[in-house]
């Protein structure tokens, strides 16, 4: 693995792109795993066909839509959900005020590690999913099927046939989050600000797409982690999709650890980051935005990354490598589409969201992103071919 050392975070040594090995198990369990997969996969396929042929056309939020999504989670053994909300005691979730949980007209900034992210968020919130790009403030609304395909950086087959292809071509339009929220006031919007999946051991650099939200729109950071952690998909491709299906269906049970952070708004974040009264303290502001100078913030971030070993979770990547030319966006956070460069105050807002995601997931931020992931996957593919040749 030393030849992939350049794809580790320099401060902490965290490698967010490596695939996660399944937990060790006895060969004697293989017949039981085959039995589970043999039983579950046909039932799961049937439930998915029911979704594709009928349920997905029902109105958003309907009981049948959510029931179908829970079937897609429950059939492969995702039975345990450990849900916790910031500043809400365990056991009192039913008494949680409305503003503590995502509701229509708000945005979820979610971690991005596995197709289970999409299924869980669909089962709970039935939201509108979006695709972010690493140097653009615009997002592209996508279907749940496309969101699942993006986890493996493959093209949604439904987008290649008939009327779906025409609808997809029309849906290639990108727009600011503020416009999307305004057009869909009764829906929750889900954003994956890392723009690509990882193995969950760290939070990647965020896309500036979050900055296109309206100043008063609430943004909820949501972290999802899994036990066992081998259901993450950091490597793209159809083969990895098949491997994910096997690991998901051959395991006894799976647990999802969900953490929902305190909501913030762009207006609050920008005002706090620009407030001169907060520039003399190193403690985090209520919204989680660092108020120190840029050099101090960078030094502290580097020290934080160096003080922590590997994270406790794993994740997935690659929704851009096989993207269509219309979807590919090159460059860093500097918008070539006339959306303006990211200011220092806006950068602190993005840092605050990233810190919230890292805190909720009990991991650290890493100075790696989509570009580094693309190079890693290319090197990983070449390494695999060399390995096969030696055999």
TrEMBL record:
Domain of life: Eukaryota
Residues covered by region (Disordered): 271-308
Signal peptide (residue range): none
Recorded GO MF terms: acyltransferase activity
Low complexity bias locations: 271-300
Record-annotated membrane-spanning stretches: 32-58
Keywords: Acyltransferase, Lipid metabolism, Membrane, Transferase, Transmembrane, Transmembrane helix
Coiled-coil residue windows: none
Name used for this protein in its record: Phospholipid/glycerol acyltransferase domain-containing protein
């Amino acid at each position: 693995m030393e030849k992939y050392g350049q794809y580790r975070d320099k401060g902490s040594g965290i490698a967010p792109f490596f695939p996660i090995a399944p937990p060790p198990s006895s060969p004697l369990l293989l017949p039981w795993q085959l039995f589970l997969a043999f039983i579950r996969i046909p039932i799961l396929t049937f439930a998915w066909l029911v979704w594709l042929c009928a349920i997905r056309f029902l109105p958003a939020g309907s009981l049948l839509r959510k029931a179908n999504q829970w079937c897609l989670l429950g059939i492969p053994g995702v039975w345990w959900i450990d849900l916790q909300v910031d500043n809400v005691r365990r056991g009192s979730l039913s008494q949680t005020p409305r503003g503590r949980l995502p509701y229509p007209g708000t945005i979820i900034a979610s971690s991005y590690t596995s197709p289970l992210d999409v299924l869980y968020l669909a089962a709970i919130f039935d939201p509108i999913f979006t695709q972010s790009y690493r140097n653009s403030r615009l997002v592209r609304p996508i279907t749940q099927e496309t969101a699942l395909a993006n986890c493996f950086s493959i093209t949604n087959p439904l987008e290649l046939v008939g009327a779906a292809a025409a609808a997809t071509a029309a849906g290639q339009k990108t727009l600011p989050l503020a416009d999307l929220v305004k057009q869909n006031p009764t829906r929750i919007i889900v954003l994956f600000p890392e723009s690509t999946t990882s193995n969950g051991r760290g939070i990647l650099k965020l896309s500036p797409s979050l900055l296109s939200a309206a100043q008063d729109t609430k943004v909820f950071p949501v972290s999802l982690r899994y036990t066992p952690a081998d259901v993450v998909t950091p490597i793209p491709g159809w083969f990895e999709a098949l491997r994910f299906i096997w690991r998901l269906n051959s395991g006894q049970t799976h647990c999802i650890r969900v953490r929902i952070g305190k909501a913030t708004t762009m207006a609050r974040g920008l005002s706090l980051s620009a407030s001169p009264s907060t520039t003399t303290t190193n403690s985090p502001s209520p919204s989680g935005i660092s108020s120190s100078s840029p050099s101090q913030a960078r030094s502290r971030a580097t020290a934080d990354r160096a003080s922590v070993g590997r994270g406790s979770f794993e994740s997935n990547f690659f929704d851009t490598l096989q993207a269509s030319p219309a979807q590919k966006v090159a460059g860093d956070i500097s918008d070539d589409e006339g959306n303006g460069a990211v200011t220092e105050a806006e950068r602190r807002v993005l840092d605050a969201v990233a810190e919230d995601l890292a805190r909720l997931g009990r991991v650290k931020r890493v100075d790696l992103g989509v570009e580094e992931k693309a190079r890693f996957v290319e090197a990983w593919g070449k390494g695999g071919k060399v390995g096969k040749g030696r055999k």
